[in-house]
Amino acid sequence: MRGKNKFKMRHLLLLLFVAYILSTLVMQQFKMISLAKEEKQLKARIEEAMNQKTQLQNEINLLQTDEYIEKVARDELGLVKPGEYIYKGIKTLK
Q1: Distance, CA of 80 to CA of 85 (rounded, Å)
Q2: CA 61, 72, 83 angle in degrees (round to 5)?
Q3: Distance between CA atoms of 13 and 19, rounded to whole angstroms?
Q4: Cα–Cα distance, 91 to 79 (Å, whole number)
Q5: Any domain includes 53
Q6: Which spans of this chain does the record mark as coiled coil (predicted)?
Q7: Residue 44, in any domain of the structure
Q8: Euclidean distance between CA atoms 50 and 89, whole angstroms
Q9: How many other C-beta atoms lie within 10 A of the C-beta of residue 74?
Q10: Which residues form the domain of 48?
Q11: pLDDT tens digit sequence for 46-70
Q12: What is the CB-side half-sphere exposure of residue 28 using CA atoms within 13 A?
């Protein structure tokens, strides 16, 4: 009788150990899936940030050109070159 009781106890302990190992493996698998999704999202954000950086660098380069500076000076500040005149029209009310 004692032999059967030890046998059952060993089976129970083995079953609990196997259940623990399986549950740990399943939880690790879920964690790996979650981390893979997070990695994918972070890579997408990095790519978006790199594209934005490139666009901003292009805009900075444009802002430093003489043509752009002249355009802003003429359009927004109303500056003219020597010898040029500004003609402004008058709006009429109908």
Answers
A1: 7
A2: 125
A3: 10
A4: 22
A5: yes
A6: 32-66
A7: yes
A8: 46
A9: 14
A10: 2-75
A11: 999 999 999 999 999 998 898 888 8
A12: 6
